[in-house]
Amino acid sequence: MKKTLLLVCVIMVASCSQQKKMNYPKTTKVDTVDVYFETEVADPYRWLEDDRSEATASWVEAQNKVTGEYLKQIPFRGALLQRLTDLADYEKIGAPFKRNGKYYFYKNDGLQNQSVLYVQDTKESEPRVFLDPNKLSDDGTVSLGGVFFSNNQKFVAYTISKSGSDWNEIFVMDANTGQLLDDHIQWAKFTGASWQGDGFYYSAYDMPTDGSVYSAVNENHKIYYHTIGKPQSEDKLVYQNKNYPKRLYRASVSEDERAMFLQESGSSLGNRLFMKDLTKKDAPVVEIASNNEFQYSPIEVIGNKIYIYTTYNAPKGKVMVADFSKPEIKNWKELIPENKYVLDGVQIIGEKFFLSYNQDASTHAYVYELNGKLKHEIKFPTLGSAGFSGKKNDKECFFTFTSFTFPNSIYSYDMDNNTYELFRAPDLKFKGDDFITEQIFYPSKDGVKVPMFLTYKKDLKKDGNNPVYLYGYGGFNINLYPNFSTNRIPFLENGGIYVQVNLRGGGEYGEEWHVSGTKMNKQNVFNDFIAAAEYLIDHQYTSANRIAIVGGSNGGLLVGACMTQRPDLFGAAIPQVGVMDMLRYHKFTIGWNWASDYGTSEDNKEMFEYLYAYSPLHNLKLGTTYPPTLVTTADHDDRVVPAHSFKFAARLQECNDGKNPTLIRIDTKAGHGAGKPIGKILEEQADIYGFIMHSLQMEPTF
Description:
Blueprint: E1 2-13, E2 27-36, E3 39-42, H1 54-72, H2 77-88, E4 92-93, E5 97-99, E6 102-108, E7 116-120, E8 128-131, E9 142-149, E10 155-162, E11 167-174, E12 180-189, E13 194-195, E14 199-204, E15 222-227, E16 236-239, E17 248-253, E18 259-265, E19 271-277, E20 285-289, E21 296-302, E22 305-310, E23 318-323, E24 333-336, E25 342-349, E26 352-358, E27 363-368, E28 374-378, E29 385-389, E30 397-403, E31 406-414, E32 419-424, E33 435-443, E34 449-457, E35 468-471, H3 489-493, E36 497-501, H4 511-515, H5 523-538, E37 547-552, H6 554-565, E38 572-576, H7 595-598, H8 605-614, E39 629-634, H9 643-655, E40 662-667, H10 678-695
Parallel strand pairs: 35-36, 35-37, 37-38, 38-39, 39-40
Antiparallel strand pairs: 1-2, 2-3, 4-6, 5-6, 6-7, 7-8, 9-10, 10-11, 11-12, 13-14, 14-15, 15-16, 17-18, 18-19, 19-20, 21-22, 22-23, 23-24, 25-26, 26-27, 27-28, 29-30, 30-31, 31-32, 33-34, 34-36
Helix pairs in contact: 2-10, 5-6
């Protein structure tokens, strides 16, 4: 139903014709028109989609120059960077986890680009470096992904990413000596390494052939088995489905290596589940749950029982049990039924279930026996988020806990007595007692109550003049929990309010909450965010020109949609690595995987019209006063390709009436965000917070 009309004419225009203070680079416009269901849609900046062209590279360089010059003129930007650096310079330690009888943990001394993996023979022995990703590159742009130990205690596989790309490489070490082996896997993506014997399963794509490594559509995901000591070319193809090239496949092996589970996702809200009986030679991969509107996730195999988390007939999640010899869903039995709160995580530690529930966007954890009987709740220090570390046979357990004013701390949990004690806590320059967090439930446009957290100084006055950093996401069933970040501290110390909103589209209240923010309901997400700003204004927390809205990825779409729908409501906008072209997002890398939340412009006329009505790129209007805007992206972002941000920034510069700065910051040797070295993070945050504080007319002191 769609065709592209390409005309040769190329027009050079100055997007800054109305700009009074900023001198933006000239951006070429081309006469490219797409036709959707008889509706013509111009795409004058289509050429910016070519991430390999010299023209795009020149445009990026010119835009970065303008942005850099503007940000350097912010008088307190240098002091802000120094304050952020000082705050970040503290020891950060992750929760220990046991493998092969030893303790492993991640630690960052303070300003290391990447955290280092350490090992201890006992909890009291001296830690030694096991794997230091800082040695993998000179500039810290190679990051460590997952680390996967073999069950036979011989090997450890690990994934790395270069410059923040989703493309992974897999390497293998001797688990006892630390010696790097010759094994090397390339073109892996969205994968771990799940061991069976002296080899592991992993997921990968064929090597890109057209040169578009960071923008071409990812198709034909496959699962392979790699045997240690053999080249990748000899890896065994375990599973592929040629009927569904735009789906994702991931394998996981039970700890006893009796079963390999395979999950297929990418076409709907859930996944299909398959199983291969590894106790039988050449056993087939058989489907055991087929309705991909629901989620099915194996927890563990113990004896003849398979424990499975699912949303099948339970939108908030439950635990089921299956017989190993009869694993099909028709034979499953309910073990722990659905609760009124969302079941957000299930682990088996020390032969006990540890269940984490999302209760109004905070973690509440409970321990159950394997027979499904509740033992007790684990009471946390305050409202916040927690995560547990342990395996099914471990006799000890650790958990991390954090909140907005509570730095990430590690506790040792006594499973027999349901008590815990502080194991490690960071020592940093922050007085959490000077601040308060409150949770408010406010009405959205349709009356639905939406929760948001506000964090601010205890002596704050509700005089309508406080600067606000308003953050949201609202999509893909993802929860926003309370969390701690040193990057917020200078803003909070200078009278700012940090607001985190749990919008529809997330998973805080189950699948109904998620679906109410997807496809033809997506406008609910934007309405929720706009209503949050209006509530803060109406209740004298702030005023319109003192609100900065921030969000990344799907949250970048949120910011783009809200600033185009209500440009009068915000004092600054920071759309980060955002999905800005809702008509073409599915044509790049893994974008097709988002159709379950968004729908596509090719589905039908009604879906096209709905997307077209809110797509940030297509709803910018000439001569409009838009808030000061700093678009951010990166050259190696192969999740949400930078073309989204390029085209949006070019159009915004063309449309803005010129009174407010419209800038784009394009990071180099960086991706969607994961694995970014600390130096780049601090520079970026200094630019973002500096831009926000300057735009909101703050006069900070550091």
